[in-house]
Design a protein that fits this description.
The chain is mainly α. The chain has one domain. Helix content is about 60%, strand content about 10%. The strands form 2 sheets. A 3-stranded antiparallel β-sheet has the order 4-1-6. A 3-stranded antiparallel β-sheet has the order 3-2-5, with no helix packed on it. β2 and β3 form a beta hairpin. α1 runs antiparallel to α3 and α3 runs antiparallel to α4. The longest helix is centred in the N-terminal third of the chain and has 26 residues.
Amino acid sequence: MADSERRPLWIVVALLVLAAAGLWAASSLTWLDLPPGSGYEGELRESLTGGDLVPWPGPLALLALAAVAAALALRGVARRLLGVVLAAAAVWVTVLVLGGSAYEAYEAAPAVRAPGYDTLPGSPSRTWWGPAAALASAALLASAGMLLAWRGHRMPRMGAKYSAPGDERRRAAAPDPDADLWKALSEGKDPTERDR
Protein backbone atom coordinates (compact mmCIF):
# COMPACT_ATOMS: atom_id res chain seq x y z
CA MET A 1 0.00 0.00 0.00
CA ALA A 2 1.40 3.35 -1.00
CA ASP A 3 2.24 5.98 1.58
CA SER A 4 -0.02 8.42 -0.27
CA GLU A 5 -3.00 6.14 0.53
CA ARG A 6 -2.08 5.90 4.22
CA ARG A 7 -1.24 9.57 4.75
CA PRO A 8 -4.84 10.91 5.02
CA LEU A 9 -5.68 8.25 7.63
CA TRP A 10 -2.68 9.19 9.78
CA ILE A 11 -3.57 12.85 9.40
CA VAL A 12 -7.06 12.08 10.74
CA VAL A 13 -5.59 10.11 13.66
CA ALA A 14 -3.23 12.99 14.51
CA LEU A 15 -6.06 15.55 14.30
CA LEU A 16 -8.26 13.48 16.60
CA VAL A 17 -5.51 12.95 19.18
CA LEU A 18 -4.76 16.69 19.18
CA ALA A 19 -8.48 17.48 19.49
CA ALA A 20 -8.76 15.13 22.48
CA ALA A 21 -5.75 16.78 24.13
CA GLY A 22 -7.19 20.24 23.47
CA LEU A 23 -10.58 19.36 24.92
CA TRP A 24 -8.93 17.82 27.96
CA ALA A 25 -6.90 21.00 28.37
CA ALA A 26 -10.05 23.12 27.95
CA SER A 27 -11.62 21.30 30.88
CA SER A 28 -8.67 22.10 33.14
CA LEU A 29 -7.76 25.62 31.94
CA THR A 30 -9.17 28.75 33.57
CA TRP A 31 -12.31 30.23 31.98
CA LEU A 32 -13.14 32.78 34.69
CA ASP A 33 -10.95 34.71 37.12
CA LEU A 34 -13.03 35.42 40.20
CA PRO A 35 -12.67 38.50 42.40
CA PRO A 36 -11.51 38.05 46.03
CA GLY A 37 -14.21 36.66 48.27
CA SER A 38 -16.01 34.72 45.55
CA GLY A 39 -17.62 31.47 46.47
CA TYR A 40 -18.74 28.83 44.00
CA GLU A 41 -20.64 25.72 45.04
CA GLY A 42 -19.74 26.30 48.67
CA GLU A 43 -16.02 26.89 48.15
CA LEU A 44 -13.86 30.00 48.17
CA ARG A 45 -12.45 30.15 44.63
CA GLU A 46 -10.04 32.38 42.74
CA SER A 47 -10.77 30.92 39.30
CA LEU A 48 -13.05 28.45 37.55
CA THR A 49 -12.01 25.95 34.91
CA GLY A 50 -14.05 24.60 32.04
CA GLY A 51 -14.65 21.40 34.00
CA ASP A 52 -16.06 23.44 36.88
CA LEU A 53 -18.52 25.28 34.66
CA VAL A 54 -19.70 22.82 32.01
CA PRO A 55 -19.75 19.02 31.77
CA TRP A 56 -18.95 18.55 28.07
CA PRO A 57 -15.16 19.01 27.52
CA GLY A 58 -14.08 15.78 29.24
CA PRO A 59 -16.59 13.46 27.55
CA LEU A 60 -15.91 15.05 24.16
CA ALA A 61 -12.19 14.39 24.67
CA LEU A 62 -13.05 10.73 25.21
CA LEU A 63 -15.24 10.81 22.09
CA ALA A 64 -12.29 12.10 20.07
CA LEU A 65 -10.09 9.27 21.39
CA ALA A 66 -12.77 6.67 20.64
CA ALA A 67 -13.05 8.12 17.15
CA VAL A 68 -9.38 7.24 16.58
CA ALA A 69 -10.16 3.54 17.01
CA ALA A 70 -13.34 3.86 14.97
CA ALA A 71 -11.53 5.65 12.12
CA LEU A 72 -8.97 2.84 11.99
CA ALA A 73 -11.52 0.02 12.14
CA LEU A 74 -14.41 1.30 10.03
CA ARG A 75 -14.54 1.55 6.26
CA GLY A 76 -16.72 2.86 3.50
CA VAL A 77 -20.01 4.52 4.39
CA ALA A 78 -19.56 3.90 8.13
CA ARG A 79 -16.32 5.85 8.11
CA ARG A 80 -17.97 8.69 6.21
CA LEU A 81 -20.80 8.77 8.76
CA LEU A 82 -18.21 8.98 11.52
CA GLY A 83 -16.83 12.04 9.75
CA VAL A 84 -20.27 13.65 9.70
CA VAL A 85 -20.71 12.95 13.44
CA LEU A 86 -17.32 14.49 14.23
CA ALA A 87 -18.08 17.58 12.15
CA ALA A 88 -21.45 17.95 13.93
CA ALA A 89 -19.71 17.63 17.32
CA ALA A 90 -17.29 20.37 16.26
CA VAL A 91 -20.17 22.68 15.34
CA TRP A 92 -21.85 21.92 18.67
CA VAL A 93 -18.67 22.77 20.62
CA THR A 94 -18.32 26.03 18.68
CA VAL A 95 -21.92 27.01 19.42
CA LEU A 96 -21.48 26.19 23.12
CA VAL A 97 -18.28 28.21 23.44
CA LEU A 98 -19.38 31.22 21.41
CA GLY A 99 -22.85 31.12 22.94
CA GLY A 100 -21.32 31.47 26.39
CA SER A 101 -22.68 28.28 27.97
CA ALA A 102 -19.86 28.29 30.56
CA TYR A 103 -20.62 31.87 31.59
CA GLU A 104 -24.36 31.18 31.73
CA ALA A 105 -23.62 28.30 34.10
CA TYR A 106 -21.72 30.67 36.38
CA GLU A 107 -24.43 33.33 36.27
CA ALA A 108 -27.11 30.75 37.06
CA ALA A 109 -25.29 29.79 40.27
CA PRO A 110 -26.31 31.90 43.27
CA ALA A 111 -23.85 34.63 44.27
CA VAL A 112 -22.13 33.63 47.48
CA ARG A 113 -20.21 35.83 49.87
CA ALA A 114 -17.24 34.05 51.36
CA PRO A 115 -16.78 34.15 55.15
CA GLY A 116 -14.90 37.24 56.28
CA TYR A 117 -16.11 39.44 53.41
CA ASP A 118 -18.75 42.08 54.13
CA THR A 119 -20.08 42.49 50.59
CA LEU A 120 -20.79 40.28 47.65
CA PRO A 121 -17.80 40.02 45.33
CA GLY A 122 -17.66 41.92 42.04
CA SER A 123 -17.98 40.50 38.56
CA PRO A 124 -15.59 37.84 37.30
CA SER A 125 -13.26 38.49 34.38
CA ARG A 126 -13.24 36.12 31.43
CA THR A 127 -10.01 34.54 30.27
CA TRP A 128 -9.35 33.32 26.77
CA TRP A 129 -7.18 30.23 27.43
CA GLY A 130 -9.97 27.75 28.08
CA PRO A 131 -12.34 28.91 25.34
CA ALA A 132 -9.44 29.15 22.86
CA ALA A 133 -8.44 25.54 23.59
CA ALA A 134 -12.05 24.41 23.10
CA LEU A 135 -12.37 26.33 19.80
CA ALA A 136 -9.04 25.02 18.52
CA SER A 137 -10.19 21.49 19.38
CA ALA A 138 -13.45 22.10 17.54
CA ALA A 139 -11.46 23.16 14.46
CA LEU A 140 -9.37 19.98 14.70
CA LEU A 141 -12.50 17.83 15.09
CA ALA A 142 -14.11 19.54 12.11
CA SER A 143 -11.00 19.00 9.98
CA ALA A 144 -10.84 15.31 10.89
CA GLY A 145 -14.56 14.91 10.27
CA MET A 146 -14.47 16.61 6.88
CA LEU A 147 -11.45 14.57 5.80
CA LEU A 148 -13.21 11.34 6.81
CA ALA A 149 -16.43 12.36 5.08
CA TRP A 150 -14.56 13.33 1.92
CA ARG A 151 -11.87 10.64 1.61
CA GLY A 152 -12.80 8.09 4.27
CA HIS A 153 -13.93 5.44 1.80
CA ARG A 154 -10.49 5.50 0.11
CA MET A 155 -8.43 5.21 3.29
CA PRO A 156 -7.04 1.80 4.25
CA ARG A 157 -8.63 -0.06 7.14
CA MET A 158 -6.81 -1.52 10.13
CA GLY A 159 -6.24 -5.19 9.45
CA ALA A 160 -7.27 -4.87 5.81
CA LYS A 161 -4.13 -6.71 4.66
CA TYR A 162 -5.40 -9.83 6.43
CA SER A 163 -8.70 -9.82 4.58
CA ALA A 164 -7.63 -8.94 1.07
CA PRO A 165 -10.19 -9.75 -1.65
CA GLY A 166 -8.04 -12.45 -3.32
CA ASP A 167 -7.50 -14.56 -0.20
CA GLU A 168 -10.43 -16.92 -0.77
CA ARG A 169 -9.42 -17.62 -4.36
CA ARG A 170 -5.83 -18.38 -3.36
CA ARG A 171 -6.98 -20.79 -0.64
CA ALA A 172 -9.27 -22.61 -3.08
CA ALA A 173 -6.51 -22.92 -5.68
CA ALA A 174 -3.90 -24.31 -3.26
CA PRO A 175 -5.60 -26.35 -0.49
CA ASP A 176 -3.78 -26.59 2.81
CA PRO A 177 -3.38 -30.15 4.18
CA ASP A 178 -3.49 -28.86 7.75
CA ALA A 179 -6.81 -27.19 7.04
CA ASP A 180 -8.35 -30.60 6.31
CA LEU A 181 -7.20 -31.84 9.73
CA TRP A 182 -8.73 -28.88 11.51
CA LYS A 183 -11.93 -29.23 9.52
CA ALA A 184 -12.22 -32.89 10.50
CA LEU A 185 -11.67 -32.01 14.16
CA SER A 186 -14.33 -29.31 14.09
CA GLU A 187 -16.77 -31.80 12.55
CA GLY A 188 -16.08 -34.27 15.38
CA LYS A 189 -14.11 -36.80 13.34
CA ASP A 190 -10.74 -38.34 14.16
CA PRO A 191 -8.40 -37.00 11.45
CA THR A 192 -5.80 -39.73 12.11
CA GLU A 193 -8.15 -42.54 11.06
CA ARG A 194 -7.97 -43.46 7.42
CA ASP A 195 -11.16 -43.95 5.45
CA ARG A 196 -11.71 -47.67 4.99
